[in-house]
Specification:
By secondary structure, the chain is an alpha+beta fold. 35% of the residues lie in helices and 34% in strands. Strand 20 and strand 21 form a beta hairpin. It has 3 domains: 2-246, no CATH class; 249-332, Alpha-Beta Plaits (2-Layer Sandwich); 334-394, Ubiquitin-like (UB roll) (Roll). Belongs to the LarC family.
Amino acid sequence: MKIAYFDCFSGASGDMILGSLMDAGLELEQLNKEIAKLHLTCYDLQVKKVLKKGIGGSQALVYVDEEHHRQHHRHLRDIEEIIKKSTLNESVKQKSAEIFRRLAEAEAKVHQTTIEKVHFHEVGAMDAMIDVVGAVAGLAALKIDKIFCSPFRVGTGTVTCAHGTLPVPAPATLELIRGKPVSSCEIKGELLTPTGAAILTTLSSGFGPMPSMTVKAIGYGAGTSELAIPNLLRVVIGDALDEVADYETEQVAVIETSIDDMNPEMYDYLLQKTLDMGVMDIFLSPLQMKKNRPGTLVTVICRPEAVMKISDFLIRETTTIGLRWRVDNRIKAHRTIKKIHTKYGPIKFKVAECSGEIVNISPEYEDCKRVALEKSIPLKAVMEAAQSVAFIHSS
């Protein structure tokens, strides 16, 4: 299996992704042929070799006729129509449209509007279409089977854009990387752009360390800014040494502490508070401690960047005076939340998929509970009805 790993040590943007692929062997002529299938006009895509802090890379240069494209106001439906009418491969169409939909959803949430009303700024829309379609088509041309990505670095400070001066990461970018590993750094400015975030979060199967592979090609895509570190996105392409299943991978932090002297009534409060803080899971395990005292092992699973916040809470709110933490790798199925109609009304379901096949589908308890209370019917009846609908959708 041929895989690509994007090392975002200096963030990522759409043009950096294109540059890294061309630096790794994708021919400019081949990329231009693919983008031409969109039937766009008044633009030019070039590439040039550059040095960033002594490291060589390729910079993708997109030239757009601003006078021509300033007259074109594009919304999501316009971009979807352009992609639909193109002669691109169907898989490239589908993935490109998905990336733009995620961009629109992020913008809509930030600006409290609908995805239909989200406006892709004229010249920026042209840049984004070339970046997005170029990245998807370029990866297909390089025959990449699966993509992985490092944790994102996002920079700090502010960025000036069409909406004014915004904090880094930009609100839309932050929405797009929700649930993914991310860290800030001392570099001032925007390292991760919305387009870069949308492409990599949509296409990547996992986020964490580089998978085991035999390296075949390496590429560096250059950004435009001059930073204190090399402003480059690195892509490593090779053959997977281990069979890589169609699951997502990520790194999580595991925090543990053993307690034998706390009022058991406090555990209910502890669990509720930590869940409200956004931890991924928390559970209690009985154990035998020194001097034959029964105790409880508190285990919290959270994002690595939340370790200090959760640890501070545990030390302040429990009787522990110390704890342990580590980083673990996690494999998970692709999960989505879907609203499915049942005889008692719509209920949310958690759907887990692998290679396009549903491997598990279950109704959300809170939704079933809400319906049971609203309609004054047994919770058991609601859950049984939901399970029967789930069986139909999974078969």
